[in-house]
Amino acid sequence: MVEGTGRGRRADAVRNRQLALQAATALLAEPGGTLTVEAIARKAGLGAATVVRAFGGKEALLDAAVASLLAPVVDRAERLLEQVGPERALRTFLVELIAFQSAHHSISDQLEGMETPATAALRRQLVSAVEEMIVGARRDGAIRTDLEPAALVTLVGRTAFAIAQARPASEEIVHAYLTVLMDGLRPQSPGPGSKEGPRSQHTP
Amino acid sequence: MVEGTGRGRRADAVRNRQLALQAATALLAEPGGTLTVEAIARKAGLGAATVVRAFGGKEALLDAAVASLLAPVVDRAERLLEQVGPERALRTFLVELIAFQSAHHSISDQLEGMETPATAALRRQLVSAVEEMIVGARRDGAIRTDLEPAALVTLVGRTAFAIAQARPASEEIVHAYLTVLMDGLRPQSPGPGSKEGPRSQHTP
Amino acid sequence: MVEGTGRGRRADAVRNRQLALQAATALLAEPGGTLTVEAIARKAGLGAATVVRAFGGKEALLDAAVASLLAPVVDRAERLLEQVGPERALRTFLVELIAFQSAHHSISDQLEGMETPATAALRRQLVSAVEEMIVGARRDGAIRTDLEPAALVTLVGRTAFAIAQARPASEEIVHAYLTVLMDGLRPQSPGPGSKEGPRSQHTP
Amino acid sequence: MVEGTGRGRRADAVRNRQLALQAATALLAEPGGTLTVEAIARKAGLGAATVVRAFGGKEALLDAAVASLLAPVVDRAERLLEQVGPERALRTFLVELIAFQSAHHSISDQLEGMETPATAALRRQLVSAVEEMIVGARRDGAIRTDLEPAALVTLVGRTAFAIAQARPASEEIVHAYLTVLMDGLRPQSPGPGSKEGPRSQHTP
DNA sequence: AATGAATGAGGGTTCATTCAT
DNA sequence: GATGAATGAACCCTCATTCAT
Q1: pLDDT for D3-16, tens place per residue?
Q2: What are the E-state strand segments in chain A?
Q3: How far apart are CA D185 and CA C201, in angstroms?
Q4: N or C: which end of chain B has fewer CB within 10 A?
Q5: Overall fold of domain D59-185
Q6: Residues of chain A contacting residue B159, judged by C-beta atoms under 8 Å apart
Q7: CA distance linking residue B75 with residue C53, whole number of Å
Q8: What does the DSSP 8-state code read for residue C167?
Q9: Rounded CA gap, A51 and A104, in Å?
Q10: Is the pLDDT of residue C25 over 80?
């Protein structure tokens, strides 16, 4: 409510941009969200033309919305890298990423094929951060070396998004995912002579 | 005009259903496929009204198309269960599932939120089969017991679909996925006392 | 009205295309015609989507409408060239062109900058025909030789369209135009020594 | 806030009107000019609401803009009448009119059907001036008497506008136009007995 | 009084469905 | 029964005008 900074109308415009953005992200969170310009405008309490004008087209609006959701995630990833070791950073990041995504169900569908500037840039940053985590953890001996980091980045990214989309968002599934993933990523000690021979042989 | 058999009309109807189905599945496979009724009809060499009439609406058509794609997958899963051990069945099934999905890119997008009868039923069957695999493998000691089978089923299903959607479909990523997943699913031997304590502790 | 040729629905489609075309040309004739797709559709007694679908876009619709109006004019020009001498052809053609245009007021505005295929092609044909008339008349000694035929073609074309647009369409103005133009186009005999010196000196 | 004079506001309003007018006339000159209120305002360095408010609507703005362009033309016509003989006045005026129009391409499109007060009044003045030129020239024996002055006024006005609109603005075409027009307007000496009989017979 | 922003009306286009042939 | 065509609803976008600051 601290708006009376003085500048005449700019404040309102900024507020409405925020409103539109919030409405868009809210619809991005609903599983069956409509994501039409009019639906967003209605939810924001604005006219349809207003949100179009504020962003310059639907694509730009969605770009901004997705980016505004993604930005703190990226930020968090980069901060984690500075604060804790790479393995712990990866684990923590995944927990938070999934929690975040669970609250914004449609975002993955939108992210697919989104080549709009802000989103694409953030995605690149995100990939970089995760790659750094994985490379670092690998260097620390916490992640297996028989798989390429690049592949693991894609693997982690795609599966995390997929898990986050599960409905209903189950703590149990998230726990299972993290457990299986982190254990599977570890350097594998050759197990006690099993009937099936050494682990991890897939020749499709 | 040479219909001959007297059930000619019925035979035609069946043939047209097949044509429409094939066209829909073909479009489902193309990454940028247009999935409009008219596009499907054109591909099928039929009129738009015919394909609608044959299924009673676009939703029913897509239901049938997805189901027709899913059916052999389910079939394969159930057959594998009868023929090989559950762990091997799971592994093999995943390989094939991903390969199948990679060849039908749009299907996952469609599967999301599809509660149409045929597809939903098949999905239930698929879940059952995978559950059986997991329960069996767990009984055999090939899968860890600290995670609930139901959660693992969801986990496996969602991540497999996610990996299959990767573009470009990379052998390397699929391999990494299968390796990490199968290793992560195994009963974990307690590692040598690490600083971080025993494995698989996530306190989000 | 001879439509009952047998082919099921094509006949109706053709009829509706004609209806849309007629509606468009009718609006093209009205000075303040609205020329929106919906106005055309309403006038034709059709849905807006129908006329769009029938032509593939508003531009194509206007192209077809203008072309359908222009085609008989071009045809007439070419026929005249075969039947009468070039000077008489030019004169007759202009009379008819203006009469035609007077009945379709908006067409000139549309012709400006129309680079759609059918219209552009017809315009080229029209220019060719008029050029042939002028070149022929010049060869016959009926048109002055101190001005380039190409310039005269443009001159005749633009002014004829302009005269046709006069409201109200006055016979008197058309007559004055034709008289002045044709006389001005003739080889000019040096008049009796006037105060102002020889004719036709413009040095802007 | 340093307004000083007390009539500052009014002075500002006048200045803004001028700015808007200049912007509008500048846009009127550009062939592909956008002519939206916002474009005009941007070019004028003003707010959109300001230019609307200053004129009371877009139509009034265009009226004023066109009028401001037309006014000097009318002025020039009336001045020429006072300074040189009517025939010379007509010729000179046409040269200048065409040059002026060529520099303001969009104006003719706007003039069509403009019945807004300022423009209409100026047009009437312009018609009067040209009529005076023609009547005067006719009295001087420089213009043929077999055509009504009123018709010639319309004829000259429409065709001049049409020629001015030619793209690209060609000196050659303008020259051809003036030559043909002025020669055609002259009293016609009966030609030597031609096969086609006396000149200027049009039987449409 | 000036203005940036808001907006309602309207434009063209697409598409699943319906209809007449 | 099959079909090409018709269509109403919905979508995104533009613009002249209005309003709150």
Answers
A1: 444 455 567 788 88
A2: none
A3: 14
A4: N
A5: Tetracycline Repressor; domain 2 (1.10.357)
A6: 158-159, 162-163, 177
A7: 44
A8: S
A9: 21
A10: yes
